[in-house]
Each structure stands twice: as structure tokens, then as C-alpha cells.
Amino acid sequence: MWIQFWKRTIARITHNGKPWNKKSSISLVYFLAFATVLILQSFTAKKRLLIEGAWSIVEVQMVNANGTHTSTFPKESLAIFSNRNYSFCWTSHFAGNHSWQIEDREKLDRFNQSIVNTGSFELKDSILTTNAIFAMHPMFTNGQAKFKCSFSGDTLVLKGLNVHSKGNIPHPVYANGAHFVNKLVKNQK
Cβ contacts of residue 74 below 8 Å, gap of 6+? Predict the structure, then answer.
């Protein structure tokens, strides 16, 4: 089948065995250039990661420098990636008191068990870079975080590479050789 295809193609380019002319040469050059581009593209084409949408954060791991880890399973969470903007919110706090009036101790507990930041993002190759314009922790406002993105089945895995404040001060976890891994599952419409 392929042999017949190439015979027909060459016959068309060479005008069925007639001598080469300028038109035949130009046709052959265009054909070879097109074939070369297709072949090169097949080797360089990468599957693009798609993270746009709303996600639930199902697990947050803190991986220590020695490889051990602890996991937190957020009770409430939402991560949104849309039009180069992101929002990342989660808490492991369980509010036992269902009232608008809560004690300062409970507010502090919730604050210490929550992450909230929002801003812009860029996904290049498999590296996600977030630039916070607002963060619950003031040190991260105007800070930056970088993650290596991958998928494990339908779970988006964000492995933290580094987190820095606006003044380029590293987050203490990363400064000590540890990192965070966030696991997200896309929300259904």
C-alpha cells in the first residue's frame, strides 16, 4: 500500500517519467518540506496539560527532606483556574459551632488550618507558576509558587517546587528541603 502511494506521488511530481522541469522541482521541494515538518512535529508534539476549571483539593501532603510525609484531607476546598487567573482555598478545620458569633480561639484555629490565595497563573510545559495578588498570609501576598503538574488518573497532582515571598524569602518548609504535594479532582458540572 505504501509503496503504491510513493510510486503515485513520485509519478505525479515527475510528470509520469517526463524530464524534470522547474515546476517539478518546486513541487518536489514543497512536498519534501511539508513531509519534513510533519515528521518533526510528530516527535516534538507534547500532550498539553489542561487545568482550566474548578477543582476540589482532596489531599495535601507535606513531604519532608527525608521522604516521609504527613497528609491533610481538607474538609472544604476549591481551586479555580480560569483565563490565567487562579484561586486556591482549603481548610482542614471542622466548624463544630454553627453560628455567626464565634470565639476568637475558633477563628484562630480555622485561620491556622486554612490556605487562601488568588492571583494570576502561567502553565508552561508542565510547570505551573502562581503569582498571588492576595493571600490570607500577608507574607505570600505578591509572592510566587511553582509546581510540577502531572496527572495520576483523573487526579491533578501539584508537586511544590518552591514558594517565595515578594522579597524572595523562601517559605520555611521549602527552605528546609521539604515540599508540599496537592492532589485535586475536577468538579463535575
Answer: 57, 58, 59, 60, 90, 91, 92
Dihedral angle computed from the Cα positions of residues 182, 102, 96 and 115, in that order, rounded to the nearest 10 degrees: 0
Tell me how crowded residue 74 is: count the other CB atoms within 10 A of its CB.
Answer: 20
User: SS3 for 114?
Assistant: strand
Per-residue pLDDT of the chain (189 residues; tens, 9 = 90+): 656 665 666 666 555 555 555 665 666 566 666 666 666 665 555 567 789 999 999 999 999 999 999 999 999 999 999 999 999 999 998 877 788 998 899 989 999 999 999 999 999 999 999 999 999 999 999 999 999 999 999 999 999 999 999 999 999 999 999 999 999 999 986
Helix, strand, coil percentages (3-state) for the chain, rounded to 5, are 25, 40, 30
